[in-house]
């Protein structure tokens, strides 16, 4: 399903107050919808992943709203002693794996040394 017929998901939604004073760790660095568009994962420079779930199936896809489903710390700052290099916790990329059962799996990476796999079961 790659090419001209591929579905492209997008989101235009604001949650909370729009503030000019945003902490560096709170800046979103990665965004990825799952294959159905029901879930949205965002990663930030602080190493956190926030999973949003589509609010209501009764609304048309173009009007869908997303609410926070889960938030967790994926990456912590590390130090690579072999390279004498500090590895930041920033999430560089998120990818959802194809769903094979009731669980949803996603991969996250900080682009340096650490890749994480996370399992989500929706209730």
UniProtKB/TrEMBL annotation:
Entry keyword set: Repeat, WD repeat
Residue ranges of coiled coil: none
GO cellular component: protein phosphatase type 2A complex
Domain of life (superkingdom): Eukaryota
Repeat in keyword set: yes
UniProt-recorded Gene Ontology molecular function terms: protein phosphatase regulator activity
PANTHER family in the cross-refs: PROTEIN PHOSPHATASE PP2A REGULATORY SUBUNIT B
Name of the featured protein: Protein phosphatase 2, regulatory subunit B, alpha a
Organism for this UniProt entry: Cyprinus carpio (Common carp)
């Amino acid at each position: 399903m790659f090419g001209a017929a591929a579905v492209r998901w997008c989101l235009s939604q604001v949650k909370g107050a729009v503030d000019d004073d945003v902490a560096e760790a709170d800046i979103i660095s990665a965004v990825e919808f799952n294959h159905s568009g029901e879930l949205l994962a965002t990663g930030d420079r602080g190493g956190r992943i926030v999973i949003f779930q589509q609010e209501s199936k009764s609304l048309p896809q173009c009007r869908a709203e997303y609410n926070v489903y889960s938030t967790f710390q994926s990456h912590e700052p590390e130090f690579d002693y072999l390279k004498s290099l500090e590895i930041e916790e920033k999430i560089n990329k998120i990818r959802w794996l194809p769903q094979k059962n009731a669980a949803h799996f996603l991969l996250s990476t900080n682009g340096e040394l650490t890749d994480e796999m996370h399992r989500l079961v929706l209730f």
